[in-house]
Structure formats: structure tokens, C-alpha cells
Specification:
This protein is an alpha+beta fold. The chain is built from two helices and four strands; from the N terminus they run βαβαββ. A hairpin with a 7-residue loop joins strand 3 and strand 4. The chain starts with a strand and ends in an 11-residue tail after the last strand.
């Protein structure tokens, strides 16, 4: 059984949040990733592809966890079944996402709807 998954942006960190004024490599000091905002919601289509408007790099980072949830898996470190918290692998501006499995009856609204 394949379920749908909602991706919610829950936190963004910038280079200064992680390293102060001395990052380990030359980096621009953007506050955080400009691709999304805290509170944005994306719905993974039934085929499991990257949602429209979602960062394809971040999707590549969290796709295995989305697939695990889509096919009924759970994580023992999350008390609520069907959920996970993951982040992209941008080492200078990571974005954190809450992933939630849901049924058609619980269809949430996505960004732009």
C-alpha cells in the first residue's frame, strides 16, 4: 500500500547560525536557504516524485525516508507513527523538514493552493 507524504518546512539555519563569523570554508553569509520558508507544505505525488516547487537537491536527500513512509514504514525514534524529521545536506544552510504519512481523507493543502 502506497500512502501520500506531506513535507513541512520546520526550521532553517544559516551559515552564521552554525559557525558564527568564521565558517570552515569561504561562504556567503546568507541568512538561510532562499528556496523555501518555514511553514511551507509540499505534497509528494502518488508516484513518489519530487513535489512541484520543492528543491530537487533537498528531495534527493530525504527521498529514502519519504519512500519508507509511503510504503508503511515507521521510525522507532519517532513516537508518532508515520512521521519523521529530516534535513537536507547543505552544510552551510540546512533546512529541516517534518515528513508525515497521510490518507486521502486527511489531504492537506500544499504551497500555492
Amino acid at each position: 500500500m502506497r500512502s501520500k507524504v506531506k513535507i513541512t518546512v520546520i526550521r532553517k539555519l544559516g551559515t552564521r547560525d552554525l559557525f558564527g563569523d568564521t565558517p570552515p570554508v569561504h561562504a556567503t553569509f546568507e541568512e538561510s536557504c532562499p528556496r523555501c520558508n518555514v511553514g511551507d507544505v509540499y505534497i509528494v505525488p502518488e508516484d513518489g516524485s519530487c513535489p512541484e516547487g520543492f528543491c530537487s537537491w533537498a528531495y534527493a536527500d530525504i527521498q529514502r525516508d519519504i519512500t519508507h513512509l509511503r510504503f508503511g514504514g515507521n521510525y522507532p525514534f519517532c513516537e508518532e507513527e508515520g512521521t519523521a524529521v529530516q534535513c537536507c545536506t547543505d552544510g552551510l544552510r540546512p533546512v529541516f523538514f517534518k515528513l508525515e504519512r497521510f490518507s486521502d481523507e486527511e489531504l492537506p493543502k500544499a504551497v500555492g493552493e
